[in-house]
Design goal:
Elements (H helix, E strand, L loop, with lengths): L2 H6 L8 E7 L4 E4 L5 E8 L1 E5 L6 E4 L3 E5 L4 E4 L9 E3 L28 E8 L3 H9 L4 E4 L5 H12 L6 H21 L8 H5 L5 H10 L7 H8 L3 H12 L3 H19 L5 H7 L5 H12 L3 H9 L1
Helix pairs in contact: 3-4, 6-7, 7-8, 9-11, 10-11
């Protein structure tokens, strides 16, 4: 399992809102919920993503924009449009809605003549501390132009939103996930970009293998020597390459990753004892685990659990 696999696992379209609209100028759609992550893509036409205190971001046919919450945003036909904003996407960040909702949250604007724009939006809830690490690696708004690996997904989306068949919600969920993965991959790999350190490090034959091992077996009794042996290099080589590429030593990274996993366990498994959580993330007793958790997270595991479930 690689780092990206782990971080994006909790960002899934189940529990999100899915919508599509054919829009004829002028229009202004105000997405009011401030979902943690919202993906907007245009099948035809174009417009602008507008957020307060941010430059307007153009969105043309085939382009995809990912907007990070909790700030709201508006999709408009042109900057300074005369259209009155229509509030849409209400409840899109509420998992209790039970999956995607095709054409829920705003009204389709009739007409697909000259100048019409077809917009597809997926708003994602983000569950847990693990997935928040992914959000932390993203800017407020990121844009990926068309012409990349996501174009094939757009073709499938365009075909699916025109249908009304059994199982459509499941198909839309998975297509949204696929589109999000393609978009983030291309954004992280863009020329001159500033991807998070772990993204590039995954491609190093030594450090990438070390990261894979730490994420696949986080509870193993790792030492730098044991990790280096599994990676086929010396202890000194692993320690230097890992620190150079990731920005911190391997065991420091492992401790932070274990505490992130523990935070999700504390919040999600209410009946698990501290000793059980400790063993799950590689600690033999609750005392050592509690000390490490407080050192990394700034609060005790018990205090974190009370705040998470309160």
């Amino acid at each position: 399992m690689d780092v990206f696999d782990d971080l994006i696992r909790g960002v899934r379209a189940h529990g999100s809102l899915f919508g599509s609209s054919v829009l004829t100028p002028p229009w202004a759609l105000h997405f009011v919920d401030g979902a943690p992550l919202t993906l907007c893509t245009v099948l035809g036409g174009g417009g602008w993503i507008v957020r307060e205190n941010h430059p307007p971001e153009p969105l043309r046919a085939g382009d995809t924009v990912v907007v990070r919450g909790p700030e709201t945003f508006t999709f408009v036909d042109e900057v300074g449009t005369r259209a009155e904003p229509v509030a849409c996407g209400e409840f899109c960040a509420t998992p209790e809605q039970g999956g995607t909702r095709h054409r829920l949250g705003w009204h389709d604007t009739a007409g697909d003549g000259p100048g019409a724009t077809t917009l597809i939006v997926g708003a994602y809830p983000v569950r847990g501390e693990v997935s928040r690490l992914l959000l932390d690696a993203l800017p407020a708004v990121l844009r990926v132009p068309g012409g990349g690996t996501g174009d094939a997904v757009l073709d499938h989306l365009a075909a699916e939103v025109a249908l009304d068949t059994p199982g459509q919600q499941v198909v839309l969920d998975r297509l949204l996930d696929w589109m999000l993965v393609c978009t983030l991959r291309e954004w992280f790999d863009r020329p001159g970009g500033e991807a998070p350190a772990w993204w590039a490090a995954q491609r190093d034959p030594v450090v990438g293998e070390a990261l894979r091992l730490l994420h696949t077996e986080p509870a193993a009794p790792w030492t730098v020597a044991a990790l280096a042996a599994r990676c086929g290099v010396s202890r000194a080589t692993l320690a230097k390459r890992f620190t150079d590429l990731v920005g911190e030593p391997p065991l420091t990274y492992l401790t932070r990753w274990r505490m992130t996993l523990a935070a999700d366990l504390l919040a999600g498994r209410h009946t698990a004892t501290l000793a059980e959580v400790a063993r799950t993330v590689g600690y033999s007793d609750a005392f050592g685990f509690s000390a490490a958790f407080k050192r990394v997270r700034g609060v005790t595991p018990s205090a974190f659990r009370r705040s998470a479930v309160g």
